[in-house]
Structures are given as C-alpha cells and as structure tokens.
Amino acid sequence: MIHLHDWLTTESVPFASKITNTLDHYVHDHDFFEIFYLLEGYILHSLNGEVSQLQAGDIIFLNPEDVHFFIREKGNECRHRDIIIRPDLFQVACDYISPSFFSNYLNKKIPKKANLSSAKIKALEQTLN
Known about the structure:
The chain has three helices and ten strands, in the order βββββββββααβα. The strands form three sheets. A five-stranded antiparallel sheet has the order 2-9-4-7-10. It is globular and about 45 Å long. By secondary structure, the chain is of the alpha+beta class.
C-alpha cells in the first residue's frame, strides 16, 4: 500500500484539484481529506475493502485514513475529479455548516456517498476551471 502525502496544497492554497483517468489503481491512503466525483463513465471503487460500482455523478468523501483504489475494465474511459483538502480547511468548512457536522462526519452519521446532477457537475467544473 502507498501512503500519499499532500504535495499539492499549502497554507495559502489549502485545496487542490485534478482530473484523473489513468493510474488510479494503486492501493493507497493519504494524509488529507479527498472528495472525488465521476465526470463520465463508470468504475469499480474499493473503499476500506468494500467494492462498489460508481457512475457519472457519484461523489465520494474520503477521510485521510481511508484505503482505496479504482478497478478499471480494459478500455474504460471513466474520468473523475479529485479534490484534495487540507484537514484544517475541511474542519473549518464543516464547522461553517454546523458545529456538530465534523464530529458527525467522522463518526459515520453522515453518508460518504451522494449523487450530483449533470447540471451541478457542470457548475462545479466551471468554478474549478
């Protein structure tokens, strides 16, 4: 297993984003929070030993200690946007939503998976680009 260190963010730029369509099959965890959503296609995703099929619009929230990787079928053209968030920014964002949100999130009282409409993805992509 690979442990990824945050190489993309700084204190002045506390989150980063990139689009991934290859080389996402390595088992890894990281020292940052990650949010990713599928832009197009479908893919199998292993999260802490549980495999599920994801499709365009699915958004997943990952904790630093979560172990995950993607399983691509040959020729799968799935693309996903990865958003890397420093732990301090993630907690500030959660606290903005509610004083108990961060604790509830860490204690698995809030789902880690949701689905975004194509219009929401388009708006996010415009903002991130």
